Fold this sequence. Notes:
Radius of gyration of chain A: 22 Å
Structural class of chain A: mainly alpha
Largest interface: A-B, 59 and 62 residues
Number of strands of chain A: 7
Strand order of the largest sheet of chain A: 2-1-3-4
Shape of chain A: globular
Shape of chain B: globular
Helix content of chain A: 40-55%
Largest sheet of chain B: none
Oligomer: heterodimer
Radius of gyration of chain B: 20 Å
Order of helices and strands of chain A: HHHHHHHHHHHEHHEHHEHEHEHHHEHEH
Helix content of chain B: over 70%
Order of helices and strands of chain B: HHHHHHHHHH
Distance between the termini of chain B: 53 Å
Amino acid sequence: MAKVVTEHDYKRGIEVLRTQIDAKIASYLSSCVNCGLCAEACLFYTETGDPRYTPIYKVEPMRRLWQREQTFAGKIGKALGFGRDLTEADFAEWQEMTYDSCTLCGRCSMVCPVGNDIAYMIRKQREAFSAAGYTPKGLQEASTRALEIGSPMGVTWKALSAQIGHVEKATGLMIPVDVQGADYMTLFSSMEIMNFPEYIEAIARIFDAAGVSWTVSSKAFEATNSGIQIGSSEIARELVSRVVDAAEGFGCKYVISPECGHAYTAIRWDGPNLIGRPYEFEVVHILELLDQLRQQGRLQTEGIDERHLTFHDPCQIVRRGGVEQEPRNLLGMVAPNFEEMPDRGIVNWCCGGGGGLSANEEAHDLRTTVFKVKKRQLEAVGVETMVTACANCRIVMEEALEHYEMPVVVEGVTELLAAHLKPKADAPQSAD
Amino acid sequence: MFLEFVEGPLWYIAVVIFLVGIAIRIYEVLARGVKPDLAVPRTDGMAGALRTIVTRSWTAKGFSSGAVFHLIAGYMFHIGLFVLIIFAAPHVVFIEERILGFGWTPAPHWVFIVAADLAFAGLVLLWLRRMMHPVMRQISTFDDHAAAVLTFVVMFTGCMALLLSHDSLRAIHMLTVCMLMIYFPFSRLMHAFTFVISRSYTGAVMGRKGVQA
């Protein structure tokens, strides 16, 4: 089993950092002209004014190592005794920049004039810091729980089973568990299971109405992946493999990624590369599936939500995941007059809790500070309800809204649709 | 004598270092390789790469407010410099006689003046920003300043040589050009070539995800 490194070993970190610099990163480092535009795209800089939070500066250890060891000018300089190697102090200093002040939201990657994907560089730098043991305690503990218990929040199958029991009682529906040959295997995030079980109820009702063949795995129900956040491909691979083994064991055609941002990145985009092969199934985000059902006429709603709504684009689902139009199509069914925030879609501002920050207590105050940008976005539209599609965004924003005493309610897209679901008797039935 | 040296042996040495250096730098980048992406793409990566090569030439919608100064100064400098290098009359003659064997119609004198003004103003503005803005001071390295100074000196000596038409000024300009060409592959000036690669990689990845980056 993969392990979380908790002992400091910066030399190990340097070894790993060397291996992370591929042609992409080498081209990024060769192209960067230190223009500083990425700072203007980063909420940690805009909301604090601290120049250390300039995204490209966060990967300074990577740049130094590349410059010194992987360019011919650097090699000559090193041979002549110029410059210095990375030290333990560098790892200690840059841990904050690598974890506490970056949500991997990728907004900086959208503005760089030479096209540098800085979020990718930070993700790769995290591999080195993770191997060196320079990681936030909260992420270490979450990753350990994910490996040992199966969930970063320590949610067991028994806990989910209990929630399923509550949902079955509330809906009168049977939640399918470990069904061989089901079309779809559904994943949940721990946050949904413990904080927002209404998501489970919502998909149960929608899937029942739409005639979706689905199942939950008692062995692999957790969608989140702490390995992606802490920056350990080894941990990430093990967590993804559990889902892959379960889905392929059931012979499922699809795995549904839930309303969780980084879970989608982990299972949809990183997963095949982590396990070294394509899946035998397809990964579909719940928003993509709901939009497909809408197009097929299998998702039918009734009534209009008259509240003043806006939509928060989760970074990993929209900017880093490509699911931008689907939530808008779905919101259009029940809230056609929802108002977009000033920055939206692929340029939306992060909630401040991605990339593992929500599990990183050392970054709590900074996370709350950088929420000010979301606060301004919300004040610009003056809504009473914000809909989103990520349980992590939701819990982070709910806490920050409470802190800033803003009377804005946060809801999930799936939950909102389920609230307007046309009763089954009226909806056309369809086999898959 | 000095002019013969800088336009003769030194020029050839500079050209060799410039070309070989760039080739090595690009090889250093590409040789590191990228693992194939095994995730099923949503859309075509190649189209995404081509799109991003073009679209990163301007600031994406939603980012312009914080980038206005940089965008304007950057365009002033790069467009001005491009016109100076390619269309200044002495450069056209030099390129025809010493490099390609053919030339083209040079820009009229007033275009040269406008281009020079733009390039100087853009470079100075960008450099001032580098020295005054807290972010720029935090991230700037010796290389950033060295490249800016060298480029400024090359442009300045070039303008002096053209306006005063004196062999010694021409020799000084050629000397600074050779210095810049020798320094080029060792510096961030490499972005003039590698930006195509970096934009392509990001564009391809985002294109596969169906994101218009």
